Input
Amino acid sequence: MKRLLLIAAAVTAFAAQAQSFPGTKPITIVVPFAAGGPTDRVARDLAEAMRKPLGGATIVIENVAGAGGTIAGNKVAKANPDGHTLFLHHIGMATSPILYRKLPYSVPNDFTYLGMVNDVPMTLIGRPSLPAANYKELSAWINDNKGKINLGNAGLGAASHLCGLMFQNALKIDMTTVPYKGTAPAITDLIGGQIDLLCDQTTNTTAQIEGKKVKAFAVTTAKRLSTPALKDLPTLQESGLKGFEVTIWHGLYAPKGVPADVASKINAALKVALKDPDFIKKQEGLGAVVVSDKRVDPVEHKKFVADEIAKWDPVIKAAGVYAD
Ligand code: ASP
Output
């Protein structure tokens, strides 16, 4: 009898929680990299667009940077699944289970998938003092400076890490990689000339390219981009790196166990946010493409991540990079 009463109380508490979601406490979107970088940019724009469809809720961003996004992943996986802790992550969600031998959480099992957000191209950029004006000249400079080149990234599991890895593999040249807590601090050092090269999302690089603060050499997508500041950049494929293609995607997650009606409220708010003309305009201005409704579906989202793990597994294993 006592057990039945306890179960009934728990069910009532759960129902009340769903009804009152979002409650009075703020919703936190955990960002796995430093403030001011591309993942942070997407999360802040998204928070603004989701506020209204979530009934005016307060949405704050918490930057939990380090270890290529896996410190944040672990924190979110173990957080209270009440819908007030969300996680905005990119392709690293799919590459970290391959890269980290002892990832302390399971990507397929420890999260509630809430839907995808956008696709973002990357750009290969260099320090402003680098003596190369285009990819051809960069390629010659790289050949002349083998063993002396520094390539920044946001840690093992970051998009910049994956892109840098593919770049070194394609050239068959090893560079010294310099890990940061995000590409915001990496780009500051690139501008300052402390590192030579960086591969980063257009959501972080477009303004820097436009302002001529960095040198831009190529885009990582199969086709050239239409964003005004980026449209003259060649693709790495047309620059001679056969089959080079990487596009970064973002998805929204919560810890596993979020009540179904809370999850569907968040998913509905995400769908509204992704149709917000302001959000779309901001993303397009930074070279990003907001996903269609189909990809905001949590089942599609989970399947997409599983497919990406399968896609990147042989590429990363062939490169032989691992972390314990
Ligand atoms: N763009 C970074 C990456 O390499 C992360 C960031 O700072 O948002 O994954």
In short: Residues 33-34, 37-40, 92, 153-154, 158-160, 182-184, 200-201 surround aspartic acid (CB under 6 Å). The first strand starts at residue 27 and ends at 31. The domain at 2-120+249-319 is CATH 3.40.190.150 (D-Maltodextrin-Binding Protein; domain 2).
